[in-house]
Write a structure and sequence with these properties.
It comes from Pseudidiomarina taiwanensis. By secondary structure, the protein is an alpha+beta fold. It contains three helices and nine strands. The relative contact order is 0.18.
Length: 172
């Protein structure tokens, strides 16, 4: 079990200011929540969306730990960058994502086995240090993968439900 040092340092300082020793100890108890360690570096791949002029660089989250960690603790994400969560089998419509320890507002596109976007949901950071108080963003449709991007990306580029994820052209 571990907490990320920079996050812990900032929060410990604030808790000592607000709640003294008791507040700080409460935080340390909350750190017993399992947070998978960061991968040394996740594989990156180009991802293209039909009729979209930009190639998206995605980090691939295809293991339990990489999917559980996702974009936690990130403070920025390039405009045409994201994280692609891959699964071996279809995920049920109730299997959602949450924003615990995620600082960036994100959009998530749930993608079916046919490589078409099935649902898009805007997700806001969860301010709670208690993961049980963070909402789950359920797609309401089964999906095979999910693409997280900066919030507003899909709307900005008019990418909606039904759009297909396609092989990137060699010269793109």
């Amino acid at each position: 079990m571990r907490c990320i040092t920079s996050f812990r340092t900032r929060l410990m300082s604030k808790l000592f200011q607000l709640g003294g020793y008791v507040g700080a100890m409460t935080f340390l108890a909350a750190c017993s929540v399992y947070i998978p360690p960061a991968a040394a570096e996740l594989a990156q791949e180009p991802l293209c969306i039909a009729d979209h002029p930009h190639t998206i660089t995605v980090e691939i989250a295809d293991t339990y730990d990489s999917r559980a960690r996702g974009l936690m603790f990130r403070e920025s994400l390039a405009e045409h960058a994201g994280m692609l969560f891959r699964y071996q089998d279809d995920r049920p419509s109730s299997a959602g994502f949450w924003m615990y320890n995620t600082y960036l507002p994100l959009d998530i596109a749930y993608i079916g086995a046919d490589n078409r976007i099935k649902a898009i949901i805007a997700m806001d950071p969860c301010p709670s240090i208690d993961p049980k108080r963070c909402p789950s963003y359920q797609p309401g449709v089964s999906y095979r993968s999910a693409l997280e991007m900066n919030q507003g990306y899909f709307a900005k580029y008019n990418i909606g439900i039904g759009r297909e994820i396609v092989a990137c052209p060699q010269n793109k």
